[in-house]
Amino acid sequence: MNIKQLIKAELDYLSTQELQEFYELLKSRSQRQNNHDDELGDLLERCKVSTGIQDLAEQHDHYIHGTPKREVE
């Protein structure tokens, strides 16, 4: 059995109250994750630097280490 099957099997043994608590736990976890994703996006947006170099991501070795530019596919 995989983990989802194991969890589903255990759900049959929980009371209505326990199911409600489990559901609330899952919802709060997912909401926290969404908040963390938003916070990370905001942080990245605040930290970005405009270099004017259009191919910096693809050719970072060239700009940092002086290696020849790679061919872009």
Automatic annotation (TrEMBL):
Protein name per UniProt: Uncharacterized protein
